[in-house]
Specification:
GO terms for molecular function: metal ion binding; metalloaminopeptidase activity. Residues 539-599 form the Peptidase M24 C-terminal domain. It comes from Sphingopyxis alaskensis (strain DSM 13593 / LMG 18877 / RB2256) (Sphingomonas alaskensis). By secondary structure, this protein is of the alpha+beta class. The protein folds into three domains: 4-147, 3-Layer(aba) Sandwich (Creatine Amidinohydrolase, Chain A, domain 1), CATH 3.40.350; 160-295, 3-Layer(aba) Sandwich (Creatine Amidinohydrolase, Chain A, domain 1), CATH 3.40.350; 303-607, Creatinase/methionine aminopeptidase superfamily (Creatine Amidinohydrolase, Alpha-Beta Complex). The chain contains 20 helices and 28 strands. Helix 4 runs parallel beside helix 5 (119-130).
């Protein structure tokens, strides 16, 4: 693949580096808030390389360049990035530091933007380069921005008040909780940089990042429960100003760095996983006593209150109706031919919008036909758009943002008759999904301790999937939310993960991907809930499934299910029909009844 556009952009960046006396530069997918999803203005890696994934880094040297992505993007990066311009480097098998260590020379100066990287990453790379006699240099202004003529400006959309009736707790109460935490730790202030933490703490929402209702802002919260909010003035309406009250001082976002110097002599909490290196440097240069602590909003934001849980349950029912209507439409239209991935994604959005409550999608819909389904984080566009053909599987991973909740659901359907291999793999994924959905576990259990439940039936056949099994989800906030997750232990350190707490929302999404052929994923969201068990000697937890839409029964090999697993699927489908059918017209209700019918467990069906 040859890409003259990206060759020209790479040349422009190299010329800019040379003019600044730099020999290299690191380009992450990140913003000043260490966000997972970033605004258009911060899509520097996509502009430079053509890579459209949500996680990755590029490194540029005078004669070499590379892109670094994890296993989710191994195929995608080769489709989108010119291999004659950039080496493809897999992580964690390798790293930016390792690649640079193999290619830099003594005396070379590699630049980085301190507003786009974490402090530990910077210090680690400084050591790696020093070992080669090279140096890492912080830049005042990003050279990619200088080379990017038509770079979009950051969004100036106003923020809005998020009603306490939906939040379940006032912003004053939330600030009080954080102030109590600061006092208990003997701290004066905490620096808050994560956009979803700021939105949650101040009960505001915004439109500055695609699919995530947050506003670009920084905040300082103090032990007296007052706060300083740094945000573009045009984003603050009279209603928001009145909502924030006199205890929240509003400043221009550009004043944030200078305000850090005003904390001289104070004890300040900073989250190294969410605050960029420039913040640590500014505080240390000002003589601030910096203490590393996790953002104090992270855990209370993840543990939903009863108002938030009631809201998200309602949002999921609304969303389930839309998804079910889409599945009916797909069953009728897709086998006729002529439908493609973009058309299917657009139709699904139509069904969500028809409900009248949709604010936005919660992420770009993964609408993947045939071999595209084998790319777990596939993103359809005009160049990759594929027809949905008979004899293939179609995977759709999608979600909606509603004022009362955030949804995320994946369904895989067969277009025409599925093969025996498709049915076997689908059933193994379903068995793992059920095993996790029905798990009971002691309080204090971490997600990594549950991950194997979802993989065990695939592992028995010598296959696996390269993504986590579950991520946290916000309520009208980020569709990917920490600190909870269900995945293999990161670096083997299960003890460093956050235990699962009642009130947390997670996804349950095992999958299987056969490169070049098909992909399978079944995803519902679940709430961690207390479990009452007769004779229990431990405080126990389990999961309440809150996503309701039919699971493709024609892809289930009933002979591979235990009777308990078949009972679970029948009970789940009975709940889908009970919860979604009210208000449906007769044709839709009839279709849903058929889609949710009990499995055929007759000897003939089991032998098929």
């Amino acid at each position: 693949m040859s890409s003259p556009v990206h060759a020209e952009r790479l040349a422009r960046v190299r010329a800019e580096l040379k003019a600044r006396g730099l020999d290299g530069f690191i380009v992450p997918i990140s913003d000043e808030h260490m966000s997972e999803y970033v605004g258009a203005y911060a899509q520097r890696m996509a502009w430079l390389t053509g890579f459209g994934g949500s996680a990755g880094t590029a490194a540029v040297l005078p004669e070499k360049a590379a892109v670094f992505v994890d296993g989710r993007y191994t195929v995608q990066v080769r489709d989108q990035v010119d291999g004659s311009l950039f080496d493809y480097v897999g992580v964690p098998q390798s790293s930016v530091a390792e690649w640079l260590g193999s290619h830099v020379s003594a005396g070379q100066r590699v630049g980085y933007d301190p507003w786009l990287h974490g402090i530990d990453w910077v210090r680690g790379l400084e050591k790696a380069l020093a070992a080669k006699g090279a140096s890492l240099v912080a830049v005042d202004k990003n050279p990619v921005d200088a080379a990017w003529d038509d770079q979009p400006a950051p969004s100036n959309a106003p923020v809005s008040v998020y009603d306490t009736a939906l939040a379940g707790q006032s912003a004053v109460e939330k600030r009080g909780v954080i102030a109590d935490w600061l006092k208990a730790k003997g701290l004066d202030t905490t620096v808050m940089t994560a956009l979803d933490s700021i939105a949650w703490t101040f009960n505001i929402r915004g439109e500055d990042v695609s699919h995530t209702p947050v506003g670009l802002a920084f905040a300082l919260l103090h032990a007296d429960a007052t706060a300083d909010l740094f945000i573009a003035p045009e984003k603050i309406t009279d209603a928001v100003r009145a909502h924030l009250g006199n205890s929240v001082r509003i400043h221009d976002r550009s004043a944030f760095e200078g305000a850090l110097a005003g904390l001289a002599g104070k004890k300040v909490a900073v989250d190294p996983d969410r605050a960029v290196a420039a913040i640590f440097t500014a505080l240390e240069n000002a003589g601030v006593q910096v203490e590393r602590h996790r953002d104090p909003a992270v855990l209370p934001k993840a543990i939903k209150n009863q108002v938030e849980l009631s809201g998200t349950r309602a949002a999921h029912l609304r969303d389930g109706v839309a998804v079910s209507r889409f599945l009916k439409w797909m069953e009728e239209v897709a086998p006729q031919g002529g439908l493609d991935e973009l058309g299917a994604a657009a139709k699904l959005r139509e069904f969500r919008e028809a409900g009248g409550a949709l604010k936005d999608l919660s992420f770009d819909t993964i609408s993947a036909a045939g071999p595209n389904g084998a790319l777990p984080h596939y993103k359809v566009d005009e160049t990759t758009n594929r027809r949905i053909e008979r004899g293939t599987l179609y995977l759709v991973d999608s979600g909606g943002q509603y004022a009362d909740g955030t949804t995320d659901i994946t369904r895989t359907i067969a277009i025409g008759a599925p093969s025996a291999e498709m049915r076997r793999r689908f059933t193994q994924v379903l068995k793992g999904h059920i095993a996790l959905a029905t798990a009971r576990f002691p309080k204090g259990t971490r997600g990594s301790q549950l991950d194997i439940l979802a993989r065990q039936y695939l592992w028995a056949d010598g296959v696996d999937y390269a993504h986590g099994t579950g991520h946290g989800v916000g309520t009208y906030l980020a569709v990917h939310e920490g600190p909870q997750r269900i995945a293999k232990p990161a670096g083997g350190q299960a003890g460093t993960e956050e235990p699962l707490h009642a009130g947390m929302i997670l996804s349950n999404e095992p999958g299987y991907y056969k490169a070049g052929h098909f992909g399978i994923r079944i995803e519902n969201l679940v709430i961690v809930v207390p479990q009452e068990i007769d004779g229990a000697e431990e405080e126990m937890l389990g999961f309440e499934t809150i996503t309701f839409a039919p699971i493709a029964r024609d892809l289930v090999d009933v002979a591979l299910l235990s009777s308990a697993e078949a009972d679970w699927l029948d009970a789940y489908h009975a709940a889908v029909f009970e919860k979604l059918s009210p208000g449906m017209d007769e044709a839709m209700r009839d279709w849903l009844a058929a889609a949710c019918a009990p499995l055929d467990r007759t000897p003939a069906a089991l032998a098929a």
